[in-house]
Amino acid sequence: MFSFFRKKTAPAAAPAAPAAATVDSTSVADEVGASPAAVVATEAVVHPVERPQAPRSSWLGRLKAGLKRTGSNLAQVFTGTRIDDELYEELEAALLMADTGVAATEFLLADLKRRVKDTQATDPAKVKALLADALAELLEPLEAELTIGRVATPTVMMVAGVNGAGKTTSIGKLTRHLAGGGAKVLLAAADTFRAAAREQLAVWADRNQVEIVSQAGGDPAAVCFDAVSAGKARGCDVVIADTAGRLATQAHLMEELRKIRRSVGRAMDGAPHEVLLVVDGNTGQNALAQVKAFDAVLGLTGLIVTKLDGTAKGGVLAAIALWGRERVAAGGAVVPVYFIGVGEALEDLETFDAREFAQALLN
Ligand SMILES: Nc1nc2c(ncn2[C@@H]2O[C@H](COP(=O)(O)OP(=O)(O)OP(=O)(O)O)[C@@H](O)[C@H]2O)c(=O)[nH]1
Ligand SMILES: [Mg+2]
User: Fold this and answer.
1) pLDDT band at 50 (very low <50, low <70, confident <90, very high)
2) For residues 247-275, b (16+ Cβ closer than 10 Å) or e, as one string?
3) Residue bearing the CA closest to ligand 1, atom 21
4) Which residue of 83, 95, 275, 353 has the smallest Cβ count within 10 Å?
5) CA–CA distance from 126 to each of 75, 78, 116, 122, 131 (Å)?
6) What is the rounded distance in angstroms from the CA atom of residue 54 to the CA atom of residue 326?
7) Does residue 42 have a pLDDT over 80?
8) Which residues contact 295 (CB under 8 A, 6 or more apart)?
9) Spacing of C-alpha 32 from chain mean position
10) Is 134's pLDDT higher than 90?
């Protein structure tokens, strides 16, 4: 089993990959109704590259800087000397301003009041610490490590999200960590319509020296089928499909995602093993709406929340966590936040830590 973001050193030498150059995908194409996908960049596959990892503390600084405004708005609430209705009203407003949403704000306020009562706190500064506890506890179920090779090999991941959420960039960053850890990665450019999208993914594949399956203007489901078949045939550890951005309201495009999911399942039993949604942390409550809508269509297994280094307010994570609780209460599984994005560079992807996040938010 492979576990990422824990493993800092690359293995000594990667076995040379077979120089497979084509995918025999005639039957594939027949099945999903498209011509075989072209395979590009098929040199020796895994070259674990040891790049210096940014220390976690500097990453946390960027997160804190991104969430600064929320932090100072929330901190302002606790500068008085009394714990009274006014404090709770100001806190409610600050949480709503931070994109926490009505339900999660109500949940946090009720939880906080309970904690204040239990601890008989009298100092607003103590209430702030109790809020950090309440928030960390709410967010805690979102913490999980993405593992590969646990269920099957290759581990097949499908990545979806609205336009510009940061899917391709996040895949590039993730690939870097996977390849850096010695995993053999294959990327599938399922955004077949835009040449720029294919090229963007190809650049990430090139940088990370991994293979990519890509095809101009073809059927995204066929490309993914071919990629998974190639991943199996070539002994890859991971296959990651980068899909085109779309709104959850575009029914035909959501249907296309379903089709991709199905064709991946036909290429390999049990695949996709991960269905990841990438959401832009700046989109506030809209991010929660995206999570719900994509989950309803695809059945999500994890999230990547990007752009938390910018003007994001961060509260939406609490809203997502509350939604997750309801999902679990209804018999579903947790949809964890595997990673958060805190910048555009390769190393700007980190695992989600509830306590750190709560502290960054209440900076
Ligand atoms: N600041 C910041 N920018 C990011 C982050 N993640 C992605 N971006 C930027 O967001 C923009 C869009 O990223 P893409 O990866 O192309 O987004 P996408 O979801 O693949 O977009 P489409 O394929 O067009 O739907 C790029 O300029 C990225 O550099 C992040 O964590 N922080
Ligand atoms: Mg993209």
Assistant:
1) very low
2) ebeeeeebebbebbbebbebbbeebbbbb
3) 164
4) 83
5) 12, 9, 9, 7, 9
6) 36
7) no
8) 277, 327, 335
9) 28
10) yes
